Amino acid sequence: MPNSITFGKKLKALRISQGLTQEEMASKLGISRRAYIPYEQDKTHPRNKETYRKIADILNYDVDEMTELLGNGKEETMPTRECRYDNKIECTFQQGVPNEVDCVKCITKHAKGDMVAHPAHYVEGRKYEPKDVIRDWQLNYNLGCVVKYISRAGRKNDILEDLQKARQYLTFEIEALEEEEKRGA
What we know:
By secondary structure, the chain is mostly helical. Helices cover 57% and strands 9% of the residues.
């Protein structure tokens, strides 16, 4: 039985497969998250070809294939196959990206790691996860947070924001040590 794929579903699947949040995608497009969300919900679509080019460049996808999904609101049907992870039915892959959101969730869970136990912004391209380093070095809460925020700087949120958080926890630790030193002297 074929699955239907719309522009919005494809856009969401591609965004998730690239590890981008809606906020990050909107920012890359130069629009607000509120303006972006209706694209994924198929409530509205970009109004000009340049926006489609930007989307295609950000998601590393062919702009013509992306715009073909718009065809007067008609859905494109694609054949299904079994999921290689959970034996669920999923859409075929195009350029290594599944077409249905459920499939992307499955792939994200297995290929990029569990977003609770092994978030992608901590594990992708890394030999060690920050939590393992923190445990091995037996760091306290403040210093553990410093390592955590430095390790994810620019990978989850804004790099400056993460570095400021790291600095704040380092300041907390320095202040605690200074206070301890005063009491001990």
